[in-house]
Prior knowledge:
By secondary structure, chain A is an alpha/beta fold. Chain A has twelve helices and 14 strands. In chain A, helix 7 links the parallel strand 6 and strand 7.
Amino acid sequence: MKDFPYSESKDTRSGFGAGLLELGRTNPNVVALCADLVGSLKMGDFIKEFPERFFQVGIAEANMIGLAAGMTIGGKIPFTGTFANFSTGRVYDQIRQSVAYSGKNVKICASHAGLTLGEDGATHQILEDIGMMKMLPHMTVINPCDFNQTKAATIAIAEYEGPVYLRFGRPVVPNFTPADQKFEIGKAVMLNEGKDVTIIATGHLVWKAILAGKLLAEQGIDAEIINIHTIKPLDTEAILASVAKTRCVVTAEEHQFNGGLGESVARLLAQNLPLPLELVGVNDSFGESGTPEELMEKYGLNEQSIVAAVQRVMARK
Amino acid sequence: MNPFNYEAEQLLNVAHQVRRDIVRMVHAVNSGHPGGSLGCTEFLVSLYFRQMTHKPEFDMNGIGEDLFFLSNGHISPVWYSTLARAGYFDPKELATFRKLNSRLQGHPATEEHLPGIRIASGSLGQGPSVAIGAAQVKKLNGDDKLVYVLTGDGELEEGQVWEAAMYAAHHKVDNFIWTVDYNGQQIDGPVDAVMSLGNLRAKFEAFGWKVLHCENGNDFAQLLPVLDEAKALTGQGQPICILMNTQMGFGVDFMMGSHKWHGVAPNDAQLEQALVQLKETLNDY
Lengths: 317, 285
């Protein structure tokens, strides 16, 4: 099992803020909108340096999505910022009609996704957003794993023409991906090559997968670990190649089973390579208040859950 | 500069043909929305044949052009006909309205790349937000042209329009003219019976808008001065709203003034009866 050294832990939302600031300096067409959460979204540095390219919309997310769609007309690249819940479920029809169906170059940037939002509880802990967004034709869905990758993803989506949902979060997590690693939309990142099982993880669960890989190595299990930062379009080639080798797979995500990464992988395997699959995620339930660590343990989203899933899936080989 | 710059008499000529197009289009597929389309004919014709600087060659970004957004997308027949008659595409294509593989979808869409359409609409209440976004970018780009949006009046029951109204006033989006088709009808009946809008003028004014009223949007003599006044009031720190009274179904006597023709197509006999009242001025498609 490879080692993944890191010098500090940081939040992915700060990666977004850093990426947005860099885009401000390098791409004059980038504009930003926010629905009264500039601090939470770490948009302050961009706003300070480019006040004329920032639009405060107040607590009016539906209007924000429409404004962003309109701002593409005239050549701008709008980045909207609010919590993941208010970026998706609250504005689904606005995204569907004005952004996705209209093919607009809007980047919907969503923080505080999943259980790791913590104490605010289930009203804010959206676990259905990946599903909602991946169902929309034309929509690209990205869930990076750490600060560096979120920053790189933020910069990469400005280069891509089309609607994107970029999902990140609140807690600090080990910042282990190389700062100079190029972000390629739709391209899986092979973290550790192994032969016994494939672990496919996205977002905050990528680090948990690495921790699980270490625990598995102690048991003599050689896990292949893949970081799927882009859930749509899915890197089907990388996944099928890995599973063809290991003959079983575990997916891990901070999301419902319904509509999540695991479901996308299940469909891919069922149609092409029907081999045992186990899913780590939330099983048709809302979250609740608690610390991120407590919640991840209670809802089965930590390294122990991944290890248990690997043991189950390997027994089915 | 408008590519036609028509006077009222020429506009009336175009309006007659657009009305013929509307009833023939909805009759041909036995579906679509003739009522609001007929009611907004003078408005659309005025924009495209007189008021707006625009290029029928169509460029999505529309830099240096006035832009029009139709939020109440169900009145697509009047928009499609006006665009075709203004040269955006061949009027023959109007015959494909609502048919399989057409660029003229039931509600306006960009997916099929019909020239003139910049955003999909149909799910109500979204147009003002989109149009205000485009207007903000015009300012950012140093483009001094204007952005127009049309909504229905029943559509104002959607909450998003008031988010947009608040935003435009707060951000002083003064290159923006929002016209409300104030015909007092919606699918289930008169607006006052379904969900009263109350004092609409006072509502917009309270939100910080400059409000104009057109007492008869089906009369060019009354509509054109209001559109000119609205244009003259832009650039003064306030967004502009026009409350435009129209009659749903205007121009076809048996369709006029009732919500019953909101989304119903005429049968063969009714089409005959309608066409007798509408002069063919620019050749039927």
